[in-house]
Amino acid sequence: MRRYWIACLALAAAPACGRHDLGDRAAAAADRKLTPAQLSFLKFAPVAEEEAAAIADVSGTIEFDEERTARLNPPVAGRVIELLVQVGDRVEADQPLVTLDSPEVKAAQVDYVRAEADAQLARTAAERAERLRTARAIAEKDFVQAQQETRKAEADFERARAQLERLRVAPGERSSRYLLRAPFAGTIVERKALVGTEIAAESPEPLVVVSDLSRLRVVVRLPERQLSLVEAGQVAAIHVDAYPRDFPGEVVAVGDVIDEATRTVLVRCTVLNPDHLLKPAMFARVQLKAPAGRRIATVPLSALLSDGHHFRVLVRRADGQLDSRPVEVGAEVGEAVQVLSGLRVGEEVVTEGALFAARQLASS
């Protein structure tokens, strides 16, 4: 890789190239020849077909898994009166986190008691109307009205009961307290609640953030030329500086939009973190593993010549001379690079002395 970049920089600065495009000069030199002595300094390697094991080694950032992260706010307005957890605490599902004093909780209890009484009264009236109807002592419209009043009262009662269930308050409980609870087991990663704080219902700022850190997300930006070798379900190896080992991961999503500025696409991986060794916001190196059986054509990185925009290689012809040929490259695979077009498997390319040969062809 280092030799490849040296070749790139040297070609960009070579006096023979000046400010002209390397591709034009290389094409003009296609019929020029090197002497046998010059050719003897060069080393060649064939275009190889090999199984792609690791197709990319890119930088990424570890983040919370949004599917296992909850930003919690109470459904009612109130005042914080007790903090039950601290940042960093591990909590169980349904564990209380913050206690609030809320008039809305008290109002919900009052509504329940009133609705229960109204429903009982309506049922009694309907039963009485049923008996009077049997005795032909009530008008039909009065009987129908009694039935409708019962249905309305029961609907109001069900609504009041559902509100208490939503607030996790037992019917008849004389309290104005509301407990904000964890929806699943996880770790408290943020807590903005303070005792005495007045909280509006459905505030945009979460009081508490709970995340299951046993599974994290790793986000990387993959160069577009490597996109054809990446798909959801691929294996990934995640490495961070803090630990000497790799953590197994998996590609779960490949973005559909290319960033115009960086020419990269967003790739999202997941990594299991049962021991909580990995931390959100850590930088990571992510090595993406190709699917089993995927074979690609490659050349050594040292064979590439670049003008900063396009790539070329020097190919040995049947007569022993060299052709400068444009190629389209893809993923880097160790010390080699995938060739998407421009070469055939088995053709020989210059791997050592390519810069020297290109300059000789350009100046001869």
Short description:
By secondary structure, the protein is α+β, with helices and mostly antiparallel strands.
Describe this structure in words.
- This protein has 364 residues and is α+β, with helices and mostly antiparallel strands.
- The protein has 4 domains: 2-52 and 294-363, Beta Barrel (conserved putative lor/sdh protein from methanococcus maripaludis s2 fold); 55-65 and 212-289, Elongation Factor Tu (Ef-tu), domain 3 (Beta Barrel), CATH 2.40.30.170; 66-102 and 176-211, RNA polymerase II/Efflux pump adaptor protein, barrel-sandwich hybrid domain (OB fold (Dihydrolipoamide Acetyltransferase, E2P)), CATH 2.40.50; 103-167, Helix Hairpins.
- The chain contains 6 helices and 22 strands.
- It has helices at residues 2-13, 22-28, 36-40, 103-134, 140-166, 354-363; strands at residues 43-46, 48-51, 54-64, 69-72, 78-83, 90-91, 96-101, 177-181, 186-191, 198-199, 208-211, 215-223, 235-239, 247-259, 264-272, 283-289, 295-300, 305-306, 311-316, 322-333, 336-341, 348-352.
- 30% of the residues are buried.
